[in-house]
Design brief:
This protein has 100 residues and is of the alpha+beta class. It is built from 2 helices and 5 strands. A 5-stranded antiparallel sheet has the order 2-1-5-4-3, covered by helices on one side.
Length: 100
């Protein structure tokens, strides 16, 4: 199964962001491992190490790299993701009568 990795490369001067995408093959219902992400970045010319696993933040291994860090913004496996619409929920709570 394919996983499209959406990420931003942050450059120091001027504070420039480039939104890019990569592709990783994973098993059904799985997300890519951190090592797969690191390998994908290396194949794209970004030699990085994982800095913050919770935020999926990668920093360059080489201090002379021309970018500050890479941040993964989305892992798209093609599966539908349920996202609650808080505004709609609030409207419905005010319009519909409460039952006890």
């Amino acid at each position: 199964m394919e996983c499209i990795v959406h990420f931003q490369v942050i450059y120091p001067q001027p504070q420039e962001r480039k939104s890019l995408r990569g592709l990783i093959f994973v098993g059904q219902g799985q997300e890519p491992a951190n090592s797969q992400l690191t390998t994908m970045f290396k194949d794209m010319g970004f030699n990085v190490r994982l800095e913050d696993e919770a935020q999926l933040l990668f920093k360059p291994v080489d201090a002379s790299a021309n970018f500050e860090y890479i941040r993964v913004t989305e892992l798209d496996t093609g599966e539908e993701v349920y996202k609650e619409d808080k505004d709609l929920k609030s409207i419905l709570e005010h319009l519909l009568p409460r039952r006890f």
